Give the backbone structure.
Amino acid sequence: MSDWYELVERDHDVQNPTSAEKVRLAGEYLRLMPEDRVLDVACGTCGPAIVLAQAFGCRIHGIEVRAAFAEQAREQIDAAGLADRIDVEVGDASQAELGSYDVALCLGAAFVWGHIGDAARALVQVAPRIAIGEPFARAEGAYEEGFPDLPATVARFESAGVDLVGLAAASEDDWDRYESLHWRAAVETGRDEVLATYRLRRDRHLTRRSTLGWAIFVGRVRD
């Protein structure tokens, strides 16, 4: 089977269980400005990058390991008239020399380094303002699919030497929309191996819907 995400994320504007509104809110917490240079790790098809460039006028460099997503990103960037604001390279951010920026993002791909604390430690070497999207267990003191509760997730994030300055949490509706677009695309393919994966992922979402959260954590490096 081809890559699951390449097959089923064809209809996603934002490839995370969040919304354009919450991506813009994260940009406000970051105090994004037109002069800011932003690194977007695992940028996918650049949905969040397009939202942020349109809202704040910042310049964004994306790194994406999937060539198909990078190509789709470039098409969407051109269609939005943002080729002078956003560019994308194909590469593995965990192996790349990331350089220096004003802001660094990693929305939904902290696993590139490990958990949110590992990702934060990598990104603070790049920029003084960072934002990371990561799941967390909704119940206090709980773990869900290996993710700790919200206070423990924040503690991991701040262990990199940053202070949490903003939190844009996904709603259950955000999760449902993200997963539902997967389901529709999978069913429309009609392929047995895709449908088998769809059923497993659908059932997992239905059982974790009220127990697993997701949020964009925004931080600033401590003085």
